[in-house]
Design goal:
Blueprint lengths: L3 E5 L4 H12 L5 E4 L10 H6 L7 E4 L2 E3 L2 H11 L11 H15 L2 H19 L5 H22 L13 H11 L13 H14 L2 H5 L1 H17 L1
Parallel strand pairs: 1-2
Antiparallel strand pairs: 1-3, 3-4
Helix pairs in contact: 1-3, 1-7, 4-7, 5-6
């Protein structure tokens, strides 16, 4: 009987990350879909498990973890997964931790804020985006993408070394999010293009399954823009 439960919504980047990781590593789990756009994460049942009322989170036989990076580390330490995901070697592990700490205020912050301001809020409110705000956020996001292209992926196939790790999956799911708002982060960035192709190949067919929501929401946003014009 499966004891580990994943509460998730594919619209959430960390939700996709955890779903893909557990699928790829064959960690048995029960997926429980929580519809964020219908505010299902705010109900009393979710609050009784997660005081922050956010997804993703896991419930492993009564042990609840509410932060996605902590969940990834827990899964790597608790379940029988290949060492390259989060190596026991302290120096290799530190490189992965370095990216995970950096990305929270960089890749994640900039891609998320751009998506929220340009697409999500207009879809929720029916009001057009603040173009000055969007331009500022886009410039910050571009600076961050260039750091990924020219520093993190300058001379290696994956973000933290020669083998894929949890850092690559975290990064990939974050970079898919701006596509909803019509921005492709991979254009004219050859290192990012080759890297995302490697990540997709490793996680296929689960990667395509988890990211269908990107195409669907992007189309919804396009229709919204057409109506505005």
């Amino acid at each position: 009987m499966v004891k580990l439960k994943l509460y998730y919504d594919f619209l959430s980047q960390p939700s996709r990350t955890l779903y893909l990781f557990m699928k790829k590593t064959e960690i048995p789990f029960e997926p429980i879909k929580i519809n964020l756009r219908k505010s299902e994460h705010l109900n009393k049942e979710i609050e009784s498990l997660n005081i922050f009322k956010k997804v993703p989170f896991i419930d492993d036989k009564g042990f609840v973890i509410m932060e996605s990076v902590a969940i990834l580390r827990y899964l790597c330490r608790t379940y029988n997964v290949a060492d390259h995901w989060y190596p026991k070697d302290y120096q290799k592990q530190a490189r992965i931790d370095e990216y995970l700490e950096w990305q929270h205020n960089n890749t994640r912050a900039h891609c998320t804020e751009y998506f929220r301001n340009k697409a999500l809020q207009p879809l929720k409110t029916g009001q057009p985006a603040n173009e000055q705000r969007v331009e500022l956020l886009e410039n910050k996001m571009i600076e961050n993408l260039n750091l990924l292209e020219n520093i993190w992926l300058k001379d290696k196939p994956f973000l933290c070394g020669e083998e894929i790790s949890i850092s690559d999956l975290v990064g990939a799911c974050e970079l898919e999010q701006p596509k909803i708002a019509g921005f492709d982060p991979f254009v004219n960035r050859p290192n990012l293009i080759k890297w995302i192709a490697r990540v997709k190949t490793i996680f296929s067919p689960f990667y395509e399954e988890a990211h269908k929501v990107i195409e669907q929401t992007a189309e919804e946003y396009k229709q919204f823009i057409r109506k505005q014009n």
